[in-house]
Amino acid sequence: MDIEQVLERLGSEATIELVHKEFGGKSVGEISDYLNGMFPQEADNEELAQAICAVCATTASDVSEFFYVKSTSNCESLNLQTIKRLSPEWTGNSLTLPFGEGATMRRLEVVGWTDLFGGQPCAIHAAQVRWLGQDGFLIWGGNSGVRILDDEATPIEGIDDHLPAGYGRPVIWVEDVADLPVDVQAVVTRHVYVAV
Fold first, then answer.
1. Beta partners for 124?
2. Residue 169 — very low, low, confident or very high, per pLDDT cuts 50/70/90?
3. In terms of Cα–Cα distance, which of 20, 15, 2, 34 is closest to 193?
4. Measured distance CA(175)–CA(184) in Å, rounded
5. 3-state SS, residue 157
6. What is the pLDDT of residue 175?
7. What is the pLDDT of residues 70-102, one digit of tens each?
8. Which residues on adjacent β-strands are paired with residue 83?
9. pTM above 0.85, yes or no
């Protein structure tokens, strides 16, 4: 099956971007299981799963994604940005990252942040991406960025003193995969797409 046949088989709403979002980084078996649930009467689900994997691998460098972060009490805004995803996306409630170097290095919990209901934690995401011409690992949260939780942080009166102790950032850029938790590494280094 070629790309057009895959999109036609998945339905009129299917696009390459949606195929990447739904299936990027998944194995043929995982995709086949999903398809068997969606299209139980179809005999070619295994063939379609293989074709979807091929589409994801060959078109990854063609797919750009966009994101932005609002200016809130958590952090300053980040204008609309374009990234190319190079790996599957890890998603969780929080992750722990190293901050500082040598004797001053500390591992701190990071959560996503949304401005809903006055500001609250939300899911946090990680993926290997190409952003501004560099390849690395992007950590992002909700529409208000991420929050680095740190009990030793001094709140800024009238700005973030109503938020959990810590620091807000639009995103976090990680250059060395070894700085990511092992479970995150297992996802963002799996089936890394070759982008041109």
1. 92
2. very high
3. 20
4. 14
5. coil
6. 94
7. 898 888 999 988 888 888 889 999 999 999 999
8. 65, 131
9. no
Lowest-pLDDT range of 50-59, 130-139, 173-182: 50-59
Give residue 195's pLDDT.
42
Which ranges in the chain belong to alpha helices (H)?
3-10, 16-23, 28-38, 45-59, 182-188
* Residue 148 in tokens: 């680095």
Structure tokens at 93: 């409630």
pLDDT at 62: 55
- The CA–CA distances, whole Å, from 160 to 45, 149, 155 equal 51, 12, 6
Identify the pLDDT of residue 63: 58
Residues whose CB is less than 8 angstroms from the CB of residue 123 and which lie 6 or more positions away in sequence, other chains included: 91, 92, 93, 112, 141, 142
Query: 120: left (phi > 0), else alpha (psi -120 to 50), else beta?
Result: beta
DSSP labels for 102-153? GGG-EEEEEEEEE-GGG-EEE-EEEEEEEETTEEEEEEE-BTTBEEEE-TTP
At 165, is the secondary structure helix, strand, or coil?
A: coil
